[in-house]
Write a structure and sequence with these properties.
CATH class: Alpha Beta
Radius of gyration: 18 Å
CATH architecture: 3-Layer(aba) Sandwich
Helix content: 25-40%
Distance between the termini: 48 Å
Number of strands: 10
Mean pLDDT: 94
Largest sheet: 6 strands, mixed
Number of domains: 1
Low-confidence stretches: none
Structural class: alpha/beta
Order of helices and strands: EEEHEEHEHHHEHEHEEHH
Bound molecules: adenosine-5'-triphosphate
Oligomer: single chain
Length: 250
């Protein structure tokens, strides 16, 4: 197995003349949870979409799950799970029907078993006949995660998976993420929540499309030039203040 599930260098995406992701280097070891943080519009979603093969980088190179991000996007898509910011399942189908639909898309040979496993894994057994549109935000997120897992991916790319979800549901969601990582799943998860950042094994902080800091929480604090024991929030404020001088347009 590849030791690095994500290993990219110089990843760049331009819209017009503007590089919204600018020469990003990112390495995440197999089985680790990497938190991806940064202000709104800093390039997190664009980076995630390049990593999972949905968006072709304009420059850069590297591998996800050992596959070339430029030439093997199909293989990456088949072996990774991508959870978008918006709930993308069918509100007028039940939990079970939604999962069955995703299993069909992946043409899974043992569809019923895959759906059973996903339902069980995410604690959705009791609710499997409930229409997705009638679920609360927390349960919708769980269903979305179940849908991401149906094809047994090795990498999860989660784009603000818990935005707008209450603290209890967020905690339960993170317990699932940690359990998956303990089984060898690699997770890249974007978030604006500091408590979630604290739960990650490592962090990557992006602003203005550029990666400003990377490492464990204490390493990020150190890279922000703050003393040991300073909070991550302080570190991010410091990093963005510094970046503003370099990147902000008048
Ligand atoms: N298809 C596109 N065409 C033009 N500009 C785009 C396109 N997609 C994204 N952008 C711009 O690229 C920048 C980065 O967007 P991106 O969605 O990657 O940021 P983000 O960090 O995920 O933001 P948020 O935290 O708000 O979700 C933004 O300024 C956005 O407007």
């Amino acid at each position: 197995m590849t030791a690095l599930a994500i290993d990219v260098r110089g990843l760049t995406k331009r819209y017009g003349k503007r590089a919204v992701v600018d020469r990003v280097d990112l390495q995440v070891a197999t089985g680790r949870i990497c938190g991806f943080l940064g202000p709104n519009g800093s390039g997190k979603t664009t980076t995630i979409r390049m990593l999972c093969g949905l968006l072709r980088p304009d420059a850069g190179e590297g591998r996800c799950l050992g596959f070339d991000v430029l030439r093997q996007s199909r293989e990456i898509k088949l072996q990774s799970g991508y959870m978008t910011q918006k709930f993308g399942l069918y509100e007028d189908l039940s939990i079970r029907e939604n999962l069955d639909f995703v299993a069909r898309l992946f043409q899974l040979p043992e569809r019923e078993r895959a759906v059973d496993d996903a339902v069980r894994r995410l604690g959705l057994v009791e609710r499997q006949q409930q229409l997705a549109g009638t679920l609360s935000g927390g349960w919708k997120q769980r269903l979305a995660l179940a849908a991401c897992l149906i094809h047994a991916p090795r990498l999860l790319l989660l784009d603000e998976p818990t935005a707008g979800v209450d603290p209890k549901a967020r905690r339960e969601f993170w317990d699932h993420i940690r359990a998956l990582a303990d089984e060898g799943m690699t997770v890249l998860v974007s978030t604006h929540y500091m408590d979630e950042a604290e739960r990650c094994d490592e962090l990557a902080y992006i602003a203005y499309g550029a990666l400003l800091a990377r490492g464990t929480a204490p390493e990020v604090v150190q890279q922000a030039g703050l003393p040991e024991g300073a909070s991550l929030e302080e570190a991010f404020v410091q990093l963005i203040a510094r970046a503003q001088d370099n990147f902000a347009t008048p």
